Amino acid sequence: MFRHTKMKVQVLCAALAIGSTGFAAVAQAADLKVGVIVPLSGPISAQGLNDELGIKAALKYQGSVAGHNIKVIKLDDQSNSALATRNARKLIDQEHVDVLVGAGGVPSSLAIATVATEGKTPLVSFTPIDLTGEKAEWAKTTTQSGDLMVGAVVDEMKRNGVKTVGYIGFSDAWGDSAYAALQKYAEPAGIKIVANERYARTDNSLTAQALKVISARPDAVLGGGAGTPGALPYIALRERGYKGVMYGTYALISPEFVQLVGKAGQGLIVSSGPSLVGPQLPDSNASKKTIAEFNKAFQEVNNSQPNDLFSAYSFDTILVIADAAKRVPSNVVPGTEAYRLALRDELNKTTKLPTTQGLLSYTPASSYGLGKDSVVMLELVDAKWMLRK
Known about the structure:
Layout: H1 2-16, H2 19-28, E1 32-38, H3 45-61, E2 64-65, E3 68-76, H4 81-93, E4 99-102, H5 106-118, E5 123-125, H6 133-138, E6 139-141, H7 146-159, E7 164-170, H8 173-186, E8 192-199, H9 207-215, E9 220-224, H10 232-239, E10 245-248, H11 255-261, E11 269-272, H12 288-302, H13 310-325, H14 337-347, E12 353-355, E13 358-360, E14 376-381, E15 384-387
Parallel strand pairs: 1-3, 1-4, 4-5, 5-6, 7-8, 7-9, 9-10, 10-11
Antiparallel strand pairs: 2-3, 11-14, 12-13, 14-15
Helix pairs in contact: 3-12, 3-13, 4-5, 7-8, 13-14
């Protein structure tokens, strides 16, 4: 009995002897908690599954930073922005996460950004979110902006001699954003928009929209969809005999899209980040080394090579968080309001960080950090994405 008591006293004394330095070391061992919201079910679940694979690859590549293990708490938003909002509140209020990541769709990501700002918790999204002011200070994205990507498509249309274009896009925030960018760039490029048709992500048929676009006789059509629902305009147009050139954006790039669109997608031209065509890039490309590291980590943890764009964007979210976290002062620990604020500040100072998309730099004024040098043009040839020279 006496020995047992003595042992306990020795342990207690040893703990007290750690002092301030020891306590700092213990504090640094706290997990950096990342709340991830992805659409693992619902209309864009294919995209969410790819997002999930990218997160797994990132944790394989970098599972800790500055002495903190990166702990992911994942929730499914079911492709629903209302549920994404509730998930974000749960992760902040109940799980006390240090940073949010997500979500699969633009509407959900914008909803999460609102919660993140209110909850004083930084967000790193892997979808395009057009934010300014206080929301931009708290929410960043690893993607290129829709405006940038549509602008690149219009440039390609101009090079190809397109004079008229029709549009078929989602009837939501992403569809509106893509169309607004088309309006912004088409007229200065000498291209007239002759049709603007919309559809819901849950629609199964686009017969009426396709017929209206075809009747306008455009030289080309831009699809403003995303994921597998983004294949519907191209299928409907080809089934009804449309022979013009078809364009899209990075929002379409996934193996599920390629499988669904089938022969209707042959020759489809899209603007994209470079991660999908790493081996095709010149050695001078700023992304090539990071893409190779991403591909290696992805293969190790998922037993396959990535064949989509979404997993690369989600991989980059962890790179961005880790890069900011390593600069947070060591006496500021995860799980505290001070840490979330410091992490936000360091995210806004990110400068020329190598990612799968290029060199990324943030400022407090915008949620975006990538420029024109991060964009490449791809063409779907025999169900494979090929870099257009």
